Fold these 2 entries.
Entry 1:
Amino acid sequence: MQLSRTKSTAKNMTHKKPLSAYLKQNYDMYLILLPGLLFILIFNILPMYGILIAFKDYSMFAVEGSPFLSVLASPWAGLKHFQKIMGETGFLYAFRNTMVISVLKIVCIFPVPIIFAILLNEVKSNAYQKGLQTIVYLPHFLSWAVVSGIFVSLLGSTGSVNHLLEAMGFGKVSFLMDNNIFRWVLVFSDGWKEVGWSSIIYFAAIAGLDQECYEAALVDGANRFQQIWYITIPGLMPTIILMLILRVGSIMDAGFGQILVMYNPTVYETADIIGTYVYRVSMGQLNFSTGTAVGLFNSLISLTLVVSTNAIAKKWSGKSIW
C-alpha cells in the first residue's frame, strides 16, 4: 500500500507542469483577471496609504503642490487623534446613533426581504408575480436625494400625511424634526427603498431548491405552510447566514447617503452617525487627521464584527463564509 502510494505521488510530480508552462497555457484567463486586479490595486490597496494621516498632524501644504507627499512630510502624532475622539461628546453620540440605527434596520428590515421572497414564490400567476417584482424593485434605482424629496413631501409639516392627520382631527406630527420619530423614518424609508432589491437573492435561492422535495412533501400530505417551514426556510438558511454576516459587517455604515440628505441640525442628537460625523469634521472643519482616525476606528470595528459573526455562525450552524 505504501509503495503504491509512493509511486502515485511520484507519478503526479512527474506530470506536474512547471509554472511557466502553466501560465503560458492559461494566459488568457489571467488577462481576464487583470482588470479586476488593477481595480482592487487602484481603489482598495493604494488608498490605504492615507491611513497614515490618522497617526500624523496632517497638513496638505507640508509639501507645496503635493497633498500626496504631504502625508509623509507631516509630523507624527502617535495616538493623539484617537485619544481626542474618544473624549469628544459628538463622536460618542455618533457612535451610539450608528449602532442604534443599524440594529433597528437589521431587526426591522432584514427579515422582510426573506418573507417577501417566500410569499412571492407562492404566487401562481406569472404575470402578477413579474409585475409585483418590478414595482417593488423600482425604488432601489432612485437616488437618496430623490427619495428624500418624496418623504419630505409626504412627512413635512405641510406634507400630505400631516394634512390627512389634520383632516381626521389629529394634530401635526414633526416626523423629520422629532428626535423620537426620526430614526423610525430612516428605518421605514430604507426598507421602502431596498426591501424589493434585497429579496432578489432569496428569490433566486428559492428557485434553485430541489423541486423533488416539494413533490415528495406533497405526496406525504404536507400543506403549503408545512412545505415552507420544512423545505423552503431550511433551504434558504445558507443564504440567510451569508447575508446576515455581510450585513453585520456593514453595521458601522448606518446609511451615510440616506442620513446626509434627510437629517437636519434639529435631529443631530439621534441621527448623526459616524459617517456624517467624519464628513462634517473632515470636510467642514478640514480636520483630516481626526476624520481619518474616526474612519479607521470604524473599519476596525466592522472587521471585528464580521470575524465574530462568522465564527458564531460556523459554531451554531456549521455554515459560514470561511
Note: The two ends are 35 Å apart (CA to CA).
Entry 2:
Amino acid sequence: MGSIYLADDLRLEGRLCALKEVEQDRTLSPEMQKEAREQFLREATVLARLDHPNLPKVSDFFSIGARDYLVMDFVPGKDLRTLMSEAHQNGSFLNENDVLNWASQLADALSYLHSQDPPILHRDIKPSNLKMTPNGLLKLVDFGLVKVLAPGEVTITILQGQGTALYTPLEQYGGDSGHTDVRSDIYAFGSTLYHLLTNRPPFDARERFLHPESLVPLREINPAISPRVERAVLWAMSLHPDERPQSIEILRQALLGDRPIIIQPRPLIRKPGFREILKSSPDQFLIWAAAGLLIVSFVATLIK
C-alpha cells in the first residue's frame, strides 16, 4: 500500500528525512484517479501547514507518474510498541506514570489536529505509530490514513485503508463511506493505552461486538493500574461513538484529572551534637575544644 524511505536532503546537507511513497490504485477510473490526485494535493497542503512539537513536519510533497510522495521529518528513537515489547520480555509492565506522560503528549497532538478548520483525523493511532525521541518527546507519525473533515465533500484519504484492526472502531470499517469523527481517534487512543498498560492487545471491535465479555478489565491483567485510568480507558473504548468521551480534552481530564504536583519535603537539618562531632571528625572536635578553653580563659581574666 505504500513505502517509507530514509532519505538525504540534497539541498540541506546533513538533513535526514522520511520519504513516503504511495502508488495510486490503478483499478480506479481515470476520473477517480484524477480526483484522488487532487485530494492528495489538498491533504498534503493541509499537512504541510501543520506545526506542532508532537507531529513530524511535512516539508514537501510531489508526484511522479502514478506515485505520490510526502517529505517529512525523520524521527529518531524507538516506537512505543518496541518499548512495550522490551518491558514484556523483562516480565514487567510499562510504568503507568510514563504511559500517562505519553498520553498527555498524544492528547496535545490530537487536540491540535482536531481543532483545525476543518478538523483533521489521524485514524491510525497505535503503539508503532508513536515514537519516543532520545530527548523524551513523543511524536505521532504516519499520516497515511489522515482524513480532512471537509463538509459536503467526498474524502479519499492519502493512503486507502481502514487502520489496524486492533485499534479501529466499528464505524471506521466502512472505509471513507463510514461516519468517522474525532471520537474515532478517541477509540484508537483508548485501545492503544489498553495495549501499553497491559502488554495484551485488545480484541478488535468486531469481536467485541459479537462477544462483549472478550474485553478483560485492565486491572485484572495489571493490578498496578489505578482505577481512574482503567475507567477512562474503557470509556474511550466504548463501541458506540455516543458512549465515548466527546473530545480529547474530556478524555484527558478523565485520565489525568487535576493531578497535584508532589513536592518531596526537604529533610530537617539537625545540628550535630557532641557525639556526632567526636565520631565524624576528632580533629575538628579538638579545634572546637581548644577554642572553647580560650574563650573560658578570656572570660575568667575579665572577671578578675
Note: Residues 152-162, 260-280 have pLDDT under 50 and may be disordered.
